[in-house]
Specification:
heterodimer; A: 113 residues; mainly beta; five-stranded antiparallel β-sheet; globular; B: mainly beta; six-stranded mixed β-sheet; four-stranded antiparallel β-sheet
Chain lengths: 113, 109
């Protein structure tokens, strides 16, 4: 069983601050996804990273996939209240063609105005 | 449809009753997942369907839980003899990048 650990579990910051959340595993993934979930909604896909060392930017969000494809980070610059939500990472294992996703427990981010 | 559709959006049931939750996938998506999310918690994997392959049922918490899907069609998650601890949001996602529905909020009273 592949496990993804996310840290920190909870994060409360002031508007305008920067933050980084982490997603770590001892397993190698073929790809890794990041999602944001707002209260009462299903998770929404933010980005998929597939290549070791890959960096993707989405406005103020920067996603990095580790060289060994075992870990990933999400950095938010100048956080805004609209960034509040549960951030989930999910690793895909394409072994045997299954593409089954494994989710971490999430980081709950609160950005205080 | 354009997105993953789940029904009902909310379900209140009495302890001991059976419930059936439905997921309409995005057309063409062969992968389909069911997850459970308790209040304020992360996602708990329940079951994974991949086309016509045998589903991965390793996340189902007890034999009261079952799910069906034929090919790339609708999936149903059935919970028999519901218990209060079954209260949660049940989320369905389809496709390799997991596009989620809005979920079904189940409350067992």
């Amino acid at each position: 069983t592949q496990l993804l650990e996310q840290s920190p579990q909870f994060l409360s910051i002031q508007e305008g601050e920067n933050l980084t959340v982490y997603c770590n595993s001892s397993s190698v993934f073929s790809s890794l996804q990041w999602y944001r979930q707002e209260p009462g909604e299903g998770p929404v896909l933010l980005v998929t990273v597939v290549t070791g060392g890959e960096v993707k930017k989405l406005k103020r969000l920067t996603f990095q996939f580790g060289d060994a494809r075992k870990d990933s980070s999400l950095h938010i610059t100048a956080a805004q209240p609209g960034d509040t939500g549960l951030y989930l990472c999910a690793g895909a294992d394409s072994g045997a063609g299954s593409y089954q996703l494994t989710f971490g427990k999430g980081t709950k981010l609160s950005v205080i105005p | 449809g354009a997105g993953v559709s789940q029904s009902p959006s909310n379900k209140v049931t009495e302890k001991g009753k059976d419930v059936e939750l439905r997921c309409d996938p995005i057309s063409g998506h062969t992968a389909l997942y069911w997850y459970r999310q308790r209040l304020g918690q992360g996602l708990e994997f329940l079951i994974y369907f991949q086309g016509n392959s045998a589903p991965d049922k390793s996340g189902l918490p007890s034999d009261r839980f079952s799910a069906e899907r034929t090919g790339e069609s609708v999936s149903t998650l059935t919970i028999q003899r519901t218990q209060q601890e079954d209260s949660a949001v049940y989320l369905c996602a389809t496709g390799y990048e997991a596009f989620f529905g809005q979920g079904t909020r189940l409350t067992v009273v």
